[in-house]
Amino acid sequence: MTALSDSGLRTLSAGLRQGAFSSAALTEACLARIAEREAEIGAWAWCDPQAARAKARAADAAPAQGLLHGIPIGIKDIMHTAGIPTGMGSPIFEGFVPEASAAVVQRIEAAGGFVLGKTVTAELAYASPGKTRNPWNLAHTPGGSSSGSAAAVAAGMVPAALGTQTNGSVIRPAAYCGVVGFKPSAGRVPTAGIQRFSVTLDQVGLFVREVTDAGPLAAVLADDAGLAQVAPLARPPRLLAVRSPVWPEAEPAQQRMFEANLAALRAAGAEVVEQELPAVLAQGHAVHRTIMAFEAAKQLVPLHVEHAARMSAPLRQLIAEGLAIDSASYRAAVARRLELRLALAECLGEADAIVTPPATGEAPATLAHTGSPSFCTLWSLAGMPALTFPVGLGPQGLPLGLQLVGALNEDARLLACAAWCAGRIGFSGRPA
Question: What is the Cα 158 distance to its own chain's centre?
Fold first, then answer.
């Protein structure tokens, strides 16, 4: 029997509704796993066991309400949480306790869930990593910037957690840690109360254990009850196999795994069409960088003026890069983004999803950086929904994933397609 701390969100929700166990019992299982592994993994920026127990008891005493009733959730530490420290992964915000919670936290609580704790983020959700290590191998990065959320779900510390993605900060750590990461379409989930980095590119995402677990949490975050009812496609999907302009960056093991995934999907009945992206999309990474650097600089200049000495060198360098971009170049990049989004929509056509690698390969054997987001950049730029699920282990014994990308605002269709694919080639291994 699967332990409560390793069970999926749907299974746990059903068990709570049926009275098979209590929120208090589930929370104790999570806290026990945190006590067992947190010292080595370092997934949490803040976690108060007594506060979590009190919230679980309150859930047990209340009538069942909402999709997440009694479910503890990990919250990335750039999301405001009323009365709970929100450190943003930066010494600048040490001791900061918001008075109001972010909109996504309010939605989780309205659906009956509660904050188990705050998960570690890279500094202001950018490049400089926090303390978190990969649960599969402590010498390897868990990815970033939503490192704590991915690691906590992978290690069985919490059944679900929130993250954000400006470039690759949900999909990449999910792939590295062997869990499901889902980034809904840009604009579907509110970002109010979340530390801004790039107003154009910032998007909320989530981490769960099974593809079918993504729907209920996404339904709450997006205020779209229909997402909770998504079932696997009843027919084989039509998929576009896209290697993208950064295919040469993929490690041989990731390339081999991708080819094996395509073969397995074809064998299961899927129509898999090899698709070259339009040449104009080769500009996508440069366009993304221009928008991100310009907007991040504008957002962070006030902090930089007062606290430059407390910022990392990579963050200071990005701010300088952004300040050197003139307004005309920025406006041109924003306009080109819309052109690239249209080109991707036309490329996808009537297909159910694009399939592509989620990362260059296994999590790198370093804690000094969080790995390359290059296989996520185009989809983040376009704001398209993206999901990754684990498909096996690489030569170093760390997870590899497969990424599916859907049409803008066709999130339910992507979830249904991903559930079909995961049912044929999914991998359910857990770190020791």
Answer: 15
Active site residue 55: no
Q: Which two tokens stand for residue 141?
A: 């990065």
- Quick one: how far is CA 364 from the chain centroid? 18
CA atoms within 13 A on the CB side of 387: 33
Q: What is the CATH number of domain 4-229?
A: 3.90.1300.10
Residues 76, 147, 183, 372: which is the catalytic one?
Answer: 76
Catalytic (active site) residue 145: yes
Q: How confident is the model at residue 432 (pLDDT cuts 50, 70, 90)?
A: confident
Q: Is the pLDDT of residue 230 over 70?
A: yes
Q: How far is it, in rounded angstroms, from Cα 198 to Cα 78?
A: 13
Choosing from 169, 244, 372, 374, which is the catalytic residue?
169
The one-letter amino acid code at 381 reads L
| Cα(325)–Cα(292) distance, integer angstroms | 11
Burial class of residue 259 in the structure, from the number of CB atoms within 10 Å of its CB (0-12 exposed, 13-18 middle, 19+ buried): exposed
- Tell me: the pLDDT tens digits for 82-95? 999 999 999 999 99
CB atoms closer than 10 angstroms to residue 120: 29
Beta bridge partners of 119: 44, 76
Give domain limits for the chain: 4-229
Cα(257)–Cα(281) distance, rounded to whole angstroms? 24
Residue 1 has what pLDDT? Answer: 55
Burial label, 252 (beta-carbon count in 10 A; 0-12, 13-18, 19+): exposed
Contact (CB, 8 A) for 209 and 159 = yes
User: Has 76 been annotated as catalytic?
Assistant: yes
Mean per-residue pLDDT over the chain, rounded: 97
